[in-house]
Amino acid sequence: MAGTASPETPSFAPFRTVLLLLYLAGLGTVLYFLAAGASYYLTPVGERARHPLYWTFKPGGSLGLRFGMAGLAMMTVMHLYSVRKRLRPLRRLGALRKWLDLHILMGILGPLFVVLHSSFKVGGIVSISFWSMVAVALSGVFGRYLYLQIPRTRAGEELTLAEVEKADRELTRRLREEFGADDAFLQRLDHAAAPDPSAGLGRLLLALLAEDLGLRRGRLAAVTRSLPGLPPALAGQLAGVVRQKALLRRRIRLWNALHRLFHHWHVIHRPFAVVMYLFVLVHIAVASWTGYGFGGR
Q: What pLDDT score does 258 carry?
């Protein structure tokens, strides 16, 4: 689509490599410490104080405390994405999609380090913050999915409906001029492209997930095969253009519904984040006041 870039474009390829390495490094670190402290984590809570790794892996231990600090740091740094999105002078500091990818990276690794910090012992007031954190992380993954459904420029700025419709008309022109598509073919493609936008938001979401998981991919293949007589090479190109056209038609037909879904996601995601950080502050204050969380024997 004009004005957009996929993750495979040259401008994003080096960044994707770095992002993959960061995921591998972060997840590898979590797995390493999970294995190193496995005997402690598998010990019943009431017997952990006698375990030789107690002063290392307990929440206030030499490593346990650092896990918590690392997790909190990541979950604070990830909000630079919101700052970048809202302050116009920062728009030159990289594409918004890259900032969002880093936001999600921190939003995944941060909670994992907090889980190590908790040593898998969650109770009392801390449990409110912990489960709010889990809700924030899971809803963040869902938010990323919705974000990808809304057409954007290479910089990550949302396109207008007029811009998306212009790109759709260009693909229609290509289908007619390069592949000989007629009105009947275009109608079949439009019918197969998207679920009914009048469906409820729950049914609409299930339909979107089914399409993106490939459960309804055969519908587009059937539309492509309905244009016979093309050489094999041209038929392969047609399949690619049909997929692009179907994606655009889906986004146009579901424009209002997708924006409603995204709005409802914000309504759910933000309160959990606020609750999480409030109780994190309470947790830090209590740990500082009592001295329990800072490794004292």
A: 74
What number of CA atoms fall less than 13 Å from residue 234's CA on the CB side?
12
Tell me what pLDDT residue 7 has: 38
Place of tokens 């004005």: 3
Give dist(CA 78, CA 226) in Å, integer: 48
What is the spatial distance between Cα 101 and Cα 81, in angstroms, rounded to a whole number?
9
Report, as an integer, the average pLDDT of 243-256: 77
CA-to-CA distance for 179 and 235, rounded, in angstroms? 9
Round to whole Å and give the CA distance between 130 and 125. 9
User: CA–CA separation, 243 vs 196, rounded Å?
Assistant: 18
**pLDDT per residue as tens digits for the range 45-82:** 889 999 999 999 998 899 999 999 999 899 889 888 88
Residues 63-67: contacts with CB within 8 Å, 24+ apart?
63/33, 63/37, 64/116, 64/117, 64/119, 65/117, 65/293, 65/294, 65/295, 67/33, 67/113, 67/114, 67/116, 67/117
Q: What are the Cα distances from residue 107, in Å, to 40, 114, 135, 202, 210?
A: 26, 11, 11, 25, 26
Beta pairing partners, 152? 158
**Tokens 């190109």 appear where?**
237
Q: Judge contact between 152 and 97, C-beta under 8 A.
A: yes
Angle at 100 between CA 97 and CA 102, to 5 degrees: 115
Contacts 24+ apart (CB under 8 A), 12-16: 12/95, 12/97, 12/98, 15/98, 15/101
